[in-house]
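Recall the central idea of this unit: under ordinary conditions, the amino acid sequence of a chain determines the structure it adopts. In this exercise we apply that idea directly, starting from the sequence alone.
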Amino acid sequence: MLAILKEEYMNLLKKMKAIAIVLIFVLFSYLIRNLSFKYRGFGIEDNSLYSSFRFLVTAGGFFFVSVLSHDAIHKESDLSTVSIYKMNYSGRRVFLGIYTGTLLFWYSCLTAVNITISMLEGKYYLSNYYHSIVIITYFISFKFLISSCTSKSMISSFVEIILGIIIFLVGKWTVYSSSSIWNNAKCFFPYFYLDKKGAYLLIPLVISAGMVGTSILLYEGKD
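Accordingly, the structure predicted from this sequence is:
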């Protein structure tokens, strides 16, 4: 599994996606911060780059993950080739290797973004870094779950983008809705837990682990 993890991670780095992600997040954080000076309602607590970055990851993280990591599972089948990994490793190890490599890649990008913003702001907030790690882990896990349910990357990418919009809108609605039905539903979305402290912040990671477990079962069922 470590060999798969390493190759997946290095392949992602070689494609220059890391530089693109860092630039996109930093530049968009600047843009959102500048807009927040003129307009209110962006959901930004203050006018810092950290708050803008937090809003960007929360609102658009799933979209970025879907676009930049759209072929993580399907790249072998889309090329109509036989995966060499599957000849030497079980489906579970292949999946976990690809998943962990993708996760490590995004963690590296988020670390670089947070370091860059901390240098620009002259201060560092560990809570914002942890927030971005938790939300991206949830999004990547959900992305892999959707990919495991479909057979082609183009199909899953389209479904993921649509679901990404729905997840954000519905997830945010459940947080502020007073309906008992929505109050129960909000437990399955990460947004409810991100404004809390302590052990609550671990719950999205537990949900992510559940999605990964389900994804593995679906992925192995295709073999």
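The chain has one domain: 2-221.
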